[in-house]
Amino acid sequence: MTVETATGRTARLERTTSESSVLVELDLDGTGRSDISTSVPFYDHMLTALAKHSLIDLTVKATGDIHIDVHHTVEDVAISIGEALKTALGSKAGIRRFGEATVPLDEALANAVVDISGRPYLVHSGEPAGQEYHLIGGHFTGSLTRHVFEAITLHAQICLHMTVLGGRDPHHIVEAQFKAFARALRAAVEPDPRVEGIPSTKGAL
After folding, report:
1. Which conformational region is residue 200 in: left (phi greater than 0), alpha (psi within -120 to 50 degrees), or beta?
2. pLDDT tens-digit readout, 130-155
3. Which of 36, 73, 93, 170 could form a disulfide with 134, with the two C-beta atoms 3.0–4.6 Å apart?
């Protein structure tokens, strides 16, 4: 894995394994611009929504062994996004640190709470029974939703509590989660003009 930092809160990462090849570029202080191509159309849709609603500029270019299963590519992209987030956050000085959002999508409703804590932890609950077995868009299995958030939280070293409060349509249930995460992440990484230094009593995140 190769990670590069540039001026500002940006990162560029390349990750290549025997299963996939991934390029991720992001800018925490962007406008929500995205250029996404993972070979998994529904995942492209979710990552486009993530960029749009977080205001994080995001480029993802990925290829992989999707003739076997899309799992490897989806996971490796999430790992790469998490690593890029961690790099772009740098020392985390001056950020708000915490973010929360509740987002509806028609009948679906999801709540996300983010802590840029330096301690990776995911609590993921509330999906209706059987959601994990739905094949969305012909490629994306419902169980991958949790797996994406697991990989991002672990590699970005953040805490995420994701709760599905309601929903019937599998597509809506997943999309509401990505949008809620995006809005909570937007708030958490945002600079707070009242914060001096690291927003922790420990002096480090």
Report:
1. beta
2. 999 999 999 999 999 999 999 999 99
3. 170
Under the banding of pLDDT at 50, 70 and 90, the label for residue 5 is low
Q: Is 104 exposed, middle or buried (0-12, 13-18, 19+ CB in 10 A)?
A: middle
Task: Give the H/E segment covering residue 141.
Answer: strand 140-141
Predicted pLDDT at 8 = 87
Asked whether the predicted pLDDT for residue 202 surpasses 70, the reply is yes
Q: Tell me, rounded to whole angstroms, the distance of Cα 197 from its chain centroid.
A: 25
The helix (run of H) or strand (run of E) holding residue 82 is: helix 71-89
Helix (H, G, I), strand (E, B) or coil at 12: strand
- 125 by DSSP, 3-state: which? strand
Q: Per the structure block, which two tokens stand in for 188?
A: 């958490």
Burial zone of 6 (CB within 10 Å; 0-12 exposed, 13-18 middle, 19+ buried): exposed
Contact between 182 and 48 under an 8 Å Cβ cutoff? The reply is no
Report residue 170 as tokens: 């599998």
- CA nearest to 75, candidates 173, 143, 162, 12: 143
What pLDDT sits at residue 1?
Answer: 73
